[in-house]
UniProtKB/TrEMBL annotation, chain A:
Residues 335-349 have a biased composition (Polar residues). The lineage of its organism: Eukaryota, Metazoa, Chordata, Craniata, Vertebrata. Residues 335-366 are annotated as: Disordered. Pfam families: Tetraspanin. Keywords: Membrane, Transmembrane, Transmembrane helix. This is Photoreceptor outer segment membrane glycoprotein 2. The gene is prph2lb. It comes from Dicentrarchus labrax.
TrEMBL record, chain B:
Belongs to the PRPH2/ROM1 family. GO terms for cellular component: plasma membrane. GO terms for biological process: visual perception. It comes from the Eukaryota. Its main location: membrane. Gene3D superfamilies: Tetraspanin. InterPro entries: Peripherin/rom-1, Peripherin/rom-1_CS, Peripherin_LEL, Tetraspanin/Peripherin, Tetraspanin_EC2_sf. CDD domains: peripherin_like_LEL. The chain crosses the membrane at residues 20-40, 60-78, 98-122. This is Retinal outer segment membrane protein 1b. Keywords: Membrane, Transmembrane, Transmembrane helix.
Length: 366, 352
C-alpha cells in the first residue's frame, strides 16, 4: 500500500526531470538569498555590539549563513542529478547516491525549519541583552577619558538621535545616573557640592538629560535641564509636555527594530522551507519512478512513482528492524542452534530462470 | 579624399555587426544608468528644496533624465539596424533614418558633455541659492506657529544633525537671530527685559545655539548657552573649544555634499560619452561597408568603409549648400525667370 502512488509516462518523467532541474537552480538562488540575509543580520547585530551584553544571539545569523551555504550546495547537486535523470543511462550513475541524497535533504529541511523558528524565538534573549547593554552604556556615558569606553558617549548620542529614543525605559533613567563627568564639575561651587553631599554614593545626579534626547518635532527650543521643575521655565508643565523629549525608551526602539528584521527574515526562511520540501517531493517521485522503470526493463514504458513503498507504519517498522539488525551484525544468530554454517533452505518464490528449476544442491559427502 | 578608409571582408562585416549589436545593448544599459543617475540627483535636490531658494541647479538632473531616456531609444534603434544590416533586403529601409539617427546621437553626446560642464559651472549659483535659503530658514526657525513656516524648525534641526553643521557660515549666525519664540519668553523676568531693551529692533538675542548644533563626538556634555562667557562654565575656553559644536557652516556642508555627488558621477558620464561615440563611429563604418557591398556585383565580396566620403571641408561645403538650397526652395530666383522668358521667346521662332 504505497503512499501517494502516481503513474508516470516517459514524457511525464522527462518533464518532471526538466522542471526539477529548473526548480533546483531556483533553490540555489534562494539558498544564496538565505546566506545574504544571515550576513545582513550579522552585520546589523555587530553594528550595535557595544550596546548589547554577552548573549547567545549570534546563533541566529550563524545558523542562517550555514543553512544558506548548505542549501546552495545541496540544490546544486540536485540540479545536476535531475539534469542527468532525463537520460536513463546517465541515471545509473546517480542511482546509488539518490536515496542517501534524499534522506540527507529531508533532514536538512529540518535544519531550515529550525533556523526559521530561531528567528522568532530569540526575542527574549535579545531583550535581556539590550537591557543590560544599554544600562552599562548609560553608566559609562561620562567616561570619555577611559580607554575602551571613550566612544560610548558618541554611540549613545547617535543611537538616541537615530532611533528617536531616550534612556533605557524612558528619559527618567538619566536622572538616576551621573552622566556629567567630574572633570567638568566645579567642586568649589556650593550648588555642586550640595548635590554631591545629598547623594548616598556621592554621585552628581540632576533632573536633566543629554541633548540627544531632544525631540526635533517640538515647537519650542529644547528644555534639557531642570525638567521636573515647572517654575524654571516659562509656560511649562512637566506632566503634560510630550513633545519636548523623545518619549520612547531605547530598549523598546531597538527591540522593535531587530524583531521587525528577524520576523521578515523568518518569513522568508519559512517560504524557502516549503519550497525546498516541494522540490524534495518531486525528486523522490522522480527517483522512485526511474527505479521502477529500471526494474521493468523497458526505458520507454510507464512506471509508478510513490513517496513511500509501504504505508508509514510498515516503513517505520522495516527501518527500525534494519537499524536493530545493524547493531547485531557481530552477534551469532541463535535461531539455527548457533551454527552459521547450516544452510537453511529458503521459502521465497524466486524465479530461477526459464525452466524454473532450483540450482542443483551438491550431494552431501557421506 | 575619403576620411579614414578601412577595408571590410564579409567576415569582418559580420563581426562588426555582431560586435556593434552587443555594444548597442551596452549603450542601452548605459542609457538606463544615466536616467537612474538623473532621478537620484533630482530626488536628492528635492529633499532639500526647503533650504534652496531657486531651482536652477535642477537643470543638471533634468538633462540627465532626458538624455537617458533618449539614449535608450536611440541605441535600441541601433540594435535593430545591426540585426538588419546583414540582410540585403531589410537594410535599405533604414537608409533615410540613419542620417537622422546620427544627428540625434551626436546631439546626445553634446548634451552629456554640457551636463559635465554645467555641474561645475553652476556651483556659484547653487551657493547663492543655499545662502538665501538657509538665511530664511534660520530667520523663521522660531515661527512654528505660522502656517507655511511651521516646519522650518524641524527642517533646520534635522539638517544640522544630519550634515553635522551649524548655522549658515558658522555657529555665530545664531547669535544674530532671535530663534526663541516670544511665546516662550517670560516678559516679567528682568533678564529678558534687559536683553530686549538693549537691542535696537527689540529682539531677544543671546549667545546660544539650538541643540541640533551640538557635536556628539564631544567628550563633554553639550554647552549650548552663554557660549562666549568663559566664566559661565567650568574649565571652558570659548576660543580654544573646538569639539563642543559643529564647526562648519551648513552652506559649506551642503555644497560639499552636492559637489561630491556630481563629481562622483563625472567618470560614469564620461565613460557613457565614450561608449556612445564608439557606437556612432562603428555604425557609420557598418553603414558605409554594407552599402558598398550591396552596390557590388558580388554582395559577399570586399567593400570599403569610411567615415566621410569626401574630406571634412568638402563635406561641410556640401552640407552648407544643401541646407541653403532647402532654405531657398520657397524663394523665387529672378535670374532663373529671366532665362526662362528668353527661352520661351526663343523657342516659338523656329516654328514660325
Amino acid at each position: 500500500m504505497a503512499v501517494l502512488r502516481v503513474k508516470f509516462t516517459k514524457t511525464k518523467r522527462d518533464k518532471l526531470a526538466q522542471v526539477l532541474w529548473i526548480l533546483n537552480w531556483i533553490s540555489v538562488v534562494t539558498g544564496a538569498i538565505l546566506f545574504s540575509l544571515g550576513l545582513f543580520l550579522k552585520v546589523e547585530i555587530n553594528k550595535r555590539e557595544e550596546l548589547m551584553a554577552e548573549r547567545d544571539i549570534q546563533y541566529v545569523p550563524n545558523m542562517l549563513i550555514a543553512v544558506g551555504l548548505i542549501a546552495c550546495a545541496i540544490n546544486f547537486l540536485g540540479g545536476k542529478i535531475c539534469y542527468d535523470c532525463v537520460d536513463s543511462t546517465k541515471f545509473l550513475r546517480w542511482k546509488l547516491i539518490m536515496l542517501p541524497y534524499i534522506i540527507c535533504t529531508f533532514f536538512f529541511t529540518f535544519c531550515v525549519l529550525v533556523g526559521a523558528l530561531m528567528c522568532y524565538s530569540t526575542r527574549g534573549e535579545l531583550e535581556e541583552s539590550l537591557n543590560l547593554g544599554l544600562t552599562d552604556a548609560m553608566r559609562f556615558y561620562k567616561d570619555t577619558d577611559t580607554p575602551g569606553r571613550c566612544f560610548l558617549k558618541r554611540t549613545v548620542d547617535m543611537l538616541q538621535i537615530e532611533f528617536q529614543c531616550c534612556g533605557n525605559n524612558g528619559y527618567k533613567d538619566w536622572f538616576q545616573i551621573q552622566w556629567i563627568s567630574s572633570r567638568y564639575l566645579d567642586m568649589t561651587q556650593k550648588e555642586v557640592s550640595d548635590r554631591i553631599r545629598s547623594n548616598v554614593e556621592g554621585k552628581y545626579l540632576m533632573d536633566g538629560v543629554p541633548f540627544s534626547c531632544c525631540n526635533t518635532l517640538s515647537p519650542r527650543p529644547c528644555i534639557q535641564q531642570q525638567i521636573t521643575n515647572n517654575s524654571a521655565h516659562f509656560n511649562y508643565d512637566h506632566q503634560t509636555e510630550e513633545l519636548n523629549l523623545w518619549m520612547k525608551g531605547c530598549r523598546q526602539a531597538l527591540l522593535e527594530y531587530y524583531t521587525h528584521i528577524m520576523q521578515s527574515i523568518g518569513l522568508t526562511v519559512l517560504i524557502t522551507w516549503l519550497f525546498e520540501l516541494s522540490v524534495l517531493t518531486g525528486v523522490r517521485f522522480l527517483q522512485t519512478s526511474l527505479e521502477n522503470v529500471l526494474r521493468q526493463g523497458d526505458p520507454n514504458s510507464e512506471s509508478d512513482g510513490w513517496l513511500l513503498e509501504n504505508s508509514f507504519m510498515e516503513t517505520a517498522r522495516i527501518n527500525l528492524n534494519i537499524i536493530k539488525s545493524l547493531g547485531k551484525c557481530n552477534q551469532i544468530d541463535t535461531a539455527n542452534n548457533g551454527d552459521p554454517n547450516i544452510n537453511v533452505p529458503t521459502t521465497s518464490k524466486a524465479h530461477y530462470g526459464p525452466d524454473n528449476v532450483p540450482p542443483k544442491q551438491t550431494p552431501e559427502a557421506s | 579624399m575619403v576620411l579614414l578608409k578601412m577595408k571590410f571582408t564579409q567576415q569582418r562585416r559580420v563581426r562588426l555587426a555582431q560586435g556593434l549589436w552587443l555594444m548597442s545593448w551596452l549603450a542601452v544599459m548605459c542609457g538606463t544608468f544615466v536616467f537612474c543617475l538623473g532621478v537620484y540627483l533630482k530626488t536628492e535636490m528635492i529633499r532639500r528644496a526647503e533650504v534652496m531658494e531657486n531651482t536652477e541647479i535642477h537643470v543638471v538632473p533634468n538633462i540627465l533624465m532626458m538624455v537617458g531616456l533618449a539614449s535608450i531609444g536611440t541605441n535600441w534603434v541601433a540594435t535593430r539596424v545591426c540585426q538588419d544590416s546583414l540582410d540585403a533586403s531589410r537594410f535599405p529601409r533604414w537608409k533615410v533614418l540613419l542620417l537622422a539617427w546620427f544627428v540625434v546621437a551626436a546631439l546626445l553626446c553634446v548634451l552629456l558633455v554640457a551636463v559635465v560642464v554645467l555641474s561645475y559651472a553652476l556651483q556659484g549659483r547653487l551657493e547663492e541659492s543655499l545662502k538665501v535659503g538657509l538665511r530664511n530658514g534660520i530667520r523663521f526657525y522660531k515661527d512654528t506657529d505660522v502656517p507655511g513656516r511651521c516646519f522650518q524648525k524641524e527642517t533646520i534641526d534635522r539638517l544640522q544633525m544630519e550634515f553635522r553643521c551649524c548655522g549658515n557660515n558658522n555657529f555665530k549666525d545664531w547669535f544674530e537671530v532671535q530663534w526663541v519664540s516670544n511665546r516662550y519668553l517670560d516678559f516679567t523676568s528682568k533678564d529678558v527685559k534687559d536683553r530686549i531693551r538693549s537691542n535696537v529692533d527689540g529682539r531677544f538675542l543671546l549667545d546660544g545655539v539650538p541643540f541640533s548644533c551640538c557635536n556628539p563626538a564631544s567628550p563633554r556634555p553639550c554647552l549650548q548657552y552663554h557660549l562666549t562667557d568663559n566664566t559661565a562654565h567650568f574649565s571652558y575656553d570659548y576660543q580654544a573649544e573646538e569639539l563642543n559644536l559643529h564647526n562648519r557652516g551648513c552652506r559649506q556642508a551642503l555644497i560639499d555634499y552636492y559637489m561630491d555627488l556630481m563629481n562622483s558621477t563625472g567618470p560614469g558620464v564620461l565613460s557613457v560619452i565614450l561608449i556612445q561615440m564608439s557606437v556612432i563611429l562603428s555604425l557609420r563604418y557598418l553603414q558605409t561597408a554594407v552599402e558598398g557591398a550591396m552596390a557590388l556585383e558580388d554582395p559577399e565580396g570586399d567593400s570599403e568603409g569610411f567615415l566621410l566620403e569626401k574630406g571634412v571641408k568638402e563635406t561641410f561645403e556640401d552640407v552648407k549648400a544643401k541646407v541653403l538650397a532647402i532654405l531657398q526652395f520657397g524663394q523665387v530666383d529672378p535670374n532663373a525667370e529671366e532665362s526662362a522668358d528668353t527661352e520661351k521667346a526663343a523657342s516659338p521662332t523656329p516654328a514660325s
